[in-house]
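Priority: medium. Attachment 1 of 2:
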């Protein structure tokens, strides 16, 4: 990031009862640093002390004017969202920010605050699994999806419980700055670089899940071998289960089939090489296991709606 690069503006709206992790995730992910061209402002209904949840309070430097300044507004989750709505001034400020073109992103129960604006009506949205039924009952025009980590509806985004807020932030980073920057941030946070928004939320079960760590190890193993043939049978053999068991449980764990996940991993690796290397399209296709440039272009267009060459121009422009 050069000194002349304009910083992207992020506001984190801290409401009464705000949850510490939900507040901290966007503040830490988007904190200004050489690799992150963002400026973050913490705000509330008014500047000063905001009583949070879990025994913590927050001193915010900004009031609702920060929402008029921001390009992205995060609404962290807060305690007892199904009991009362945020102040009307907060709701109006969120609507005003959206009308000016800002993206609004809710983490966990922050979806309830977004819901009061009416901006989620007729759209898909999610929240923490414990509150999905309450959100659907309180706002019946919203298409509440309890089985996903996050939902991107363009100008309004919602995510499930706190940890999925990291997935949402990385998803936004991936769209803003490219997969290289997103992966760099994930490594800094020691977080998974990519979890599909369609991955199922964790819901308590009475039966233990002994294969979870084994499947995670298989995914890590596969990521180091994207240039090699990777079939369902190869992955299942590494996980030491039958192909049928592996396929079924993989979908439960990730929200996609093993081969969909492999293809997405290959495309993401190609994106990073396009952003950060001068390799040609044919070489990149070979490096990520897609064989030919034509094959890379086909899957790139299908998944991302653009070509590798145009993607490279987009994420190297101005550097």
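Attachment 2 of 2:
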């Amino acid at each position: 990031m050069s000194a002349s690069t304009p910083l992207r503006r992020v506001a984190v709206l801290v409401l009464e009862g705000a949850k510490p992790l939900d507040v901290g995730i966007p503040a830490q992910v988007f904190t200004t640093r050489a690799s992150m061209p963002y400026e973050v402002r913490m705000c509330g209904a008014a500047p000063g002390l905001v009583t949070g949840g879990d025994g913590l309070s927050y001193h915010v430097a900004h009031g609702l004017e920060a929402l008029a300044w921001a390009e992205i507004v995060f609404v962290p989750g807060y305690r007892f969202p199904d009991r009362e709505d945020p102040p009307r001034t907060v709701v109006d400020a969120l609507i005003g920010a959206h009308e000016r073109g800002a993206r609004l992103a809710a983490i966990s129960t922050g979806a309830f605050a977004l819901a009061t604006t009416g901006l989620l009506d007729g759209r898909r949205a999610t929240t923490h699994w414990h509150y999905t039924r309450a959100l659907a009952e309180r706002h019946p025009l919203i298409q509440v999806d309890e089985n996903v980590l996050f939902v991107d509806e363009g100008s309004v985004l919602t995510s499930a419980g706190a940890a999925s807020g990291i997935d949402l932030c990385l998803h936004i980073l991936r769209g803003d700055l490219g997969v290289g920057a997103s992966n760099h941030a994930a490594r800094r946070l020691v977080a998974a670089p990519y979890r599909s928004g369609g991955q199922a939320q964790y819901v308590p079960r009475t039966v233990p899940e002994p294969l979870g760590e084994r499947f995670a190890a298989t995914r890590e193993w596969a990521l180091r071998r994207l240039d090699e043939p990777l079939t369902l049978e190869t992955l299942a053999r590494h996980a030491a289960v039958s192909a049928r068991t592996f396929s079924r449980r993989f979908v439960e764990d990730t929200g996609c089939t093993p081969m969909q996940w492999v293809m997405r991993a290959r495309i993401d690796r190609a994106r990073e090489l396009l952003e950060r290397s001068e390799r040609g399209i044919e070489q990149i296709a070979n490096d990520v296991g897609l064989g030919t440039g034509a094959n890379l272009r086909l899957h790139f267009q299908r998944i991302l709606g653009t070509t590798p060459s145009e993607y490279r121009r987009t994420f190297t422009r101005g550097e």
